[in-house]
Amino acid sequence: MKLIDDCTPCLLHLLLLAGLCVPSSSYPASRSPLCGMLRSMIHQVERLTKLSGKFHNLTGEELEHLEVAGNRLAGLPDMEHTAAHIDSLKVNESLSQLFMYTQSFRLHVNWLKTAKENVSLSSHPAKETNTHLLHLSTFLNASLHQIGEEVPPSQSPSLPEVSTAFDVLQFSVEISKRLRMFCFWSKRVLLIIQGQSPCPRH
Ligand SMILES: *[C@@H]1O[C@H](CO)[C@@H](O)[C@H](O)[C@H]1NC(C)=O
Ligand SMILES: *[C@@H]1O[C@H](CO)[C@@H](O)[C@H](O)[C@H]1NC(C)=O
Ligand SMILES: *[C@@H]1O[C@H](CO)[C@@H](O)[C@H](O)[C@H]1NC(C)=O
Ligand SMILES: *[C@@H]1O[C@H](CO)[C@@H](O)[C@H](O)[C@H]1NC(C)=O
Hints:
One of its GO terms (molecular function) is cytokine activity. This is Interleukin-11. One of its GO terms (cellular component) is cytoplasm. The protein has helices at 2-21, 33-52, 60-67, 79-85, 91-118, 124-146, 165-196. By secondary structure, the chain is mainly α. The protein has a single domain (33-66, 79-196), classed as Growth Hormone, Chain: A (Up-down Bundle). Helix 2 runs antiparallel to helix 7 (165-196). Mean pLDDT is 81; it is low at 1-30. One 2-acetamido-2-deoxy-beta-D-glucopyranose is lined by residues 111, 114-115, 118, 162.
């Protein structure tokens, strides 16, 4: 919860600014197919939020020992930075950004799945997470097509070598934390877009 608490002010800021910046006239006032996709994407993010807590099975004390390693996966999207820079993002830009982040998490989680299998740790949560990331990216891709935006190309992050189960656990903790932040950020962004679009409230 610590990361989320730290980030509350910037997210409130983001919420306020996005409300001011996103033009509400971008979409026709009738039932937009985007509304259905937004609902589906929010659902996927909610599933991912739950899964992000299941990446490792460690106690608080064990976690403290692991956390000293810090951030080793340089290619993971960093929500702490982007939350402050997102003020001026438009709907099309938020969706592009979300798509790129989702693709990045897919690559990292897939890599973690293999790393876990290599050291005989359960890869089930990683597999399930990847399924929902794939659904999310499919909806994002479709939404970008829907609003006539180009789908950004995927990057290939460089991923470190892993040899020990301890390494794998450290990476699980790191990805789990970042995935939580990503989910929190994504849900806010998707709700903002939903609020700016002519979508029924339920
Ligand atoms: C998680 O840890 C608890 C308590 O240590 C243990 O009972 C449980 O079997 C573990 N689950 C997995 C999936 O490793
Ligand atoms: C998003 O749309 C605005 C106009 O609505 C346009 O100026 C901007 O270039 C678009 N951004 C991207 C990343 O396509
Ligand atoms: C898993 O093991 C294979 C074979 O040893 C190796 O080539 C690969 O890099 C490993 N993958 C990860 C993510 O550790
Ligand atoms: C996005 O969707 C289009 C069709 O709507 C498909 O051709 C393309 O492969 C998809 N791209 C990704 C990255 O999923």
